[in-house]
Amino acid sequence: MDRNRKYLDPIFDLGTSGLMSVNANALDVLHIRKEWGPRVLSGEKGRPVDARPNDGRGKARSSRYRNSSTAHFDWQLTGDKHYLEELYAKQIEECDLLDYINTEGSLWIDRVGVPYVDLQRARLGGVALVRNGTFPGHVASWRFTPPANDQSVAILIPDATATGFKVIACNLETNSVQAAMTGWNIDPGVWEITQGVDTNDDDKADVALTSRTNRFERSSSLEFTFAPRSTTILTLKQKMAGTPYWQRPDLGICRDDVEVDGDDINVRIHSLGSVPSPQSTVVFRDRSGQIVAREEIPAIAAPVDLYPKTADVVLSLPAGINVTGGTVEIDPDHRVEEITRLNNTVKL
Fold first, then answer.
1. Is 261 exposed, middle or buried (0-12, 13-18, 19+ CB in 10 A)?
2. CA angle 81–20–156, rounded 5-degree value
């Protein structure tokens, strides 16, 4: 980092406020806990040239809706969850006080102002979406199997980076909860996932320890089971680096790229990566999941000149096939290592 530190000066010049405006977990991504931790905990705010000492006015506070609170960073630096308890209690009180102006008396027609950045940092390891935020900084997102939902499990991610992070997950239900965690701002490769139950509230796994390795990367998911009324500790670390995203092709389609014409399905496939895509395959599956048509996709150049690069393919279906409920899928055998596979399937 020292060699390239000059490129971070626009952030550091803003003092602690600059760190809190970065969507990713700057404390750990930039390895500056020791350097900046005391400044955050002291309550410093503003630029370094006009930083204010503690003078009775309390902790610094940013915009209550779009920026992070110092209390979240105080928790990260100390591990003391009382900072979060006080923070969330104040946010709940504020939402209650502003209930009318945020509902019937709203000043805007497209949004309401509620604090949501701190929750994203805690549950996702960074801010995924915030108004005027140009790049997401979260490492994970969550999907819970019904009847569980997003309120079934309390989640904290104290130290997220692209090559490792920790999850503290407390299942509030009386039954086990199944969850899928999707990776986002992480480096691809083989990861080691350690899981166990914390029995003494020290945020460390004590019992039921298990360990496994999985391929894990942006937009891929890992499945977990959280024991009822227990706190589960997950530790994820990259053990072997994979192919960087910028060295991968990416094929993609959307609903507008698929047109049904009698017994033919016309498909326009886009090359979206920074390297050419190799020859591949596109198929049609009927509603039962059976492949009933297959066609080759030629190699497609990468759009490095910023002009679209596409290939048009026709899938000819056997007579009498009902396309409703079927899917068009690129590379069904997963032979191409792409940036993401989330844009490979369209349901009709």
1. exposed
2. 30
Task: Give yes or no for a cis peptide into 244 (omega within 30° of 0).
Answer: no
Domain ranges across the chain: 2-115, 140-242, 246-347
Please tell me the CATH code under which domain 246-347 is placed. Answer: 2.60.40.10
* Rounded average pLDDT per 10-residue block, the chain, 348 residues: 76 87 94 94 68 47 63 96 96 92 84 87 95 90 97 97 98 98 98 97 92 97 97 98 97 97 96 96 96 97 97 95 95 96 96
- Global confidence as pTM: 0.87
Taking residue 253's Cβ as centre, other Cβ atoms within 10 Å add up to: 20
Three-class HEC string of the chain: CHHHHHHHHHHHCCCHHHHHCCCCCHHHHCCCHHHHHHHHHCCCCCCHHHCCCCCCCCCCCCCCCCCCCHHHHHHHHHCCCHHHHHHHHHHHHHHHHCCCCCCCCCCCCCCCCCCCHHHHHHHHCCCCCCCCCCCCCCCEEEEECCCCCCCCEEEECCCCECCEEEEEEEECCCCCEEEEEEECCCCCEEEEEEEEEECCCCCCCCEEEEEEEEEECCCCEEEEEECCCCEEEEEEEEEEECCCHHHCCCEECCHHHEEEECCEEEEEEEECCCCCECCEEEEEECCCCCEEEEEEECCECCCCCCCCCEEEEEEECCCCCCCCCCEEEECCCCCCCCCCCCCCEEEC
Distance of alpha carbon 280 from alpha carbon 204, whole angstroms? 46
CATH of segment(s) 140-242? 2.60.40.1180
Q: Are 121 and 84 in contact (CB under 8 A)?
A: no
